[in-house]
Amino acid sequence: MNKKTLTLRLLACLLSTAAAGSALADSASINYRHQFLDEDRMHSDRVKLAYRMDNGLGFEGELKYRTAGDRKDVAFDNTVSSGHELTTSYQYKYSAVSTWQPAIQLDSNENGTTYKFGLKYTRKLSDQFYVAARYRFDALKLNRDRIDEDVPDRGSDNRNTQRYEGWIGYTPAGKFSYEYQYIHFNTDYIRYDNKKSDYEQNLNVKYKLDKSWAPFVEIGDIKVSATDDDRQLRFRVGVQYNFM
């Protein structure tokens, strides 16, 4: 079975699962997002399907695509797969205003698989404000054919990342909602500015058209490379459709 056939079957399976289980599910959605990097000038896309049951157990599947090769400023042409990600999580409502969510994720592409283990806490401060925090441990296991232990600083070896995240959200009465996210990374390899640490920032604005459709835009501040301190903007635009 080739990669294209496998991808199409995975997408069909996830869609049918969400549709069949929607009568029992607390939520089910499909999310499409397009991404462009300001300095790298590269385009990519992602489709995510999410399904959460009344008991708090949830599943997500992501299909990722990118423009092949080094073709800058080109979107939706010569598109190839850049991997897929599967997530299982459990949403535990500790009280009326707070929620805990442990999760396990598998993020795979041709280079290897990253195993992600995380725990997120969300607290509602008022009808309009909420905050959240998450710790996640990411363990990248490279394709054995790509491991080269002679490359310094684990540049071509298995890698571990500790990821600390914080969110603050504002959901006023009306159709718009806003969310700011800050991420700090501690790693065992050179990640940014010749250091084993890094950070990212994201600002997301969502517009609720109706109970089903919600387009959004996101601007991020991310690194350019591992060896200097240059930063770049990451632009994302997409839409989410909620089945229920």
From TrEMBL:
Highest taxon listed in the record's lineage: Bacteria
Signal peptide start and end residues: 1-25
SUPFAM superfamilies linked to this entry: Porins (SSF56935)
Organism of this sequence: Phytopseudomonas seleniipraecipitans
Keyword annotations of the record: Signal
Pfam families, A to Z: KdgM
Lineage: Bacteria, Pseudomonadati, Pseudomonadota, Gammaproteobacteria, Pseudomonadales
UniProt protein name: Oligogalacturonate-specific porin KdgM family protein
